[in-house]
Amino acid sequence: MEGKQVGLRDLFSMQFTSPGFSRELLKVVGDQQPDACFQCMKCSSGCDALKFQGDFRPHQLVGLARLGLRDRLLNAKLIWSCTTCSYCREVCPQDVSPVDVIKALRRMAVKEGQLLEDHRKIAGYLFKTGHLVPVNEEVMELRKKLGLSSVPPTTHAHPQSLEEVKKLLRATKFVEIIGGGGGSDR
Amino acid sequence: MIDKRYAFYLGCITPNRYPGIESATRKIFGRLGIELVDIPGASCCPAPGVVGSFDAMTWLVVGARNITLAEGLGLNILTVCNGCFDTLFEVNRLLREDSKLRDDVNAVLAKVDHEYRGTVEVRHFSEVLREYGIENLKKHIKKRLGLRVAVHYGCHLLRPYEKKKIDHPMVPTLVDELVKAVGCESVPYMTKMMCCGAGGGVRSAFLKYSLEFTKRKLEELKKLNVDCLVNVCSFCHLQFDRGQKEIEKLFGEHFAIPVIHYSQLLGLSMGMSPEEVGVRAHVISCDPLLEKLTSGR
What we know:
The structure holds 2 protein chains of 2 kinds.
Chain A: H1 8-12, H2 21-29, H3 42-45, H4 48-52, H5 58-67, H6 70-75, H7 87-91, H8 98-111, H9 117-129, H10 137-145, H11 159-171, H12 174-177
Chain B: E1 5-8, H1 13-16, H2 19-31, E2 35-38, H3 51-54, H4 56-73, E3 77-79, H5 82-97, H6 99-109, E4 122-124, H7 125-132, H8 134-138, E5 148-152, H9 161-164, H10 174-181, E6 185-186, H11 202-205, H12 207-224, E7 228-231, H13 234-251, E8 259-261, H14 262-269, H15 287-295
Parallel strand pairs in B: 1-2, 1-3, 3-4, 5-6, 5-7, 7-8
């Protein structure tokens, strides 16, 4: 699907289908109803991401998911184009919530090791510092000027709290997902 | 009900990139007689569209740990970033609604001796200010600012409406009322409810594409000749402030539109100095706007 538009023919070519995918997906989407989509395109018609990336169409992603085109979806960089603004969830007449379908697809892709390199990097900061965006020297100076503690009272100032976060990230296997604690210090 | 004290949840961008927002927030709530209590050892929320897109259990347990810290303090949580608000609000909601999920999360939290109990609420500072009351808020205002501002709500304050029920998810008025309270005009614009472009891990993975959103909004605001963009989310704030410099580099377009978090705007109107609320530390200079304030034009 990368770079290539998904058309009607793709939607009807069933050779990529994995049986049970729709059901597998339903299990990870929570209280939403991806199966109820009737392709009204209301989500795509107001999608901001689609304005800048024409082949990102939430209704098509949901359609492909319902048809079980598992591998094509999980391998597509396209599922990472969503800013999760949730406009689609607000307008969907069927309670499908494409944004939640997309997030579920992402989690399935990550489980298969399809994590983007930049995401692997910032995830590493979470493990190393407890923050996706850690403090730096320049901001520490600014904090002092503002009359704040140079290091914020977060995991940055509480090593034992950082250890707790690390323990949790090991317990959920997040560390394995991101490939060992990576991420350089910033 | 408005509380006398809140657990002030900082997150990442606020303390680690825009501490002016943190300092302004502490001061404005102090003036209102509402105490903000630190949450020692809090971590990243973690980001809803990033960690929430990687692994659900990680998102839930790290979010739940932050909530348990506030539970320990016996205080409801106050946030100044839509991303933090979304994660903590949604984790709190999911764990309250689903006892099986709560058990699963608590089984992991037990490893670090925490237990989620579901005893606190998660609030965004803008709705707390609304509850404080616009008229009551006006009593603390020393200077009507008289600026023409563009309000940017950001996506995760209001959506999903069905769960958050804070304001209309497409045509809200909450922040517009707050900027009017400090004597500013909220200029209507077409792309008002458009996303800043930063969320969902898009900024970190595809910077140029994420800035397309930002640029589209700035293009409209330039035509409308507003004094600044006012936001209620530290991540949107970063995307508009830093983003303008990145847009210059990547697209060669120059906007120079000052970006102000509502906590900072309110601080200025309460008589705080630009230094106190940290607006001089922004990437995009706020000088034109500050000059306008001092000259009273």
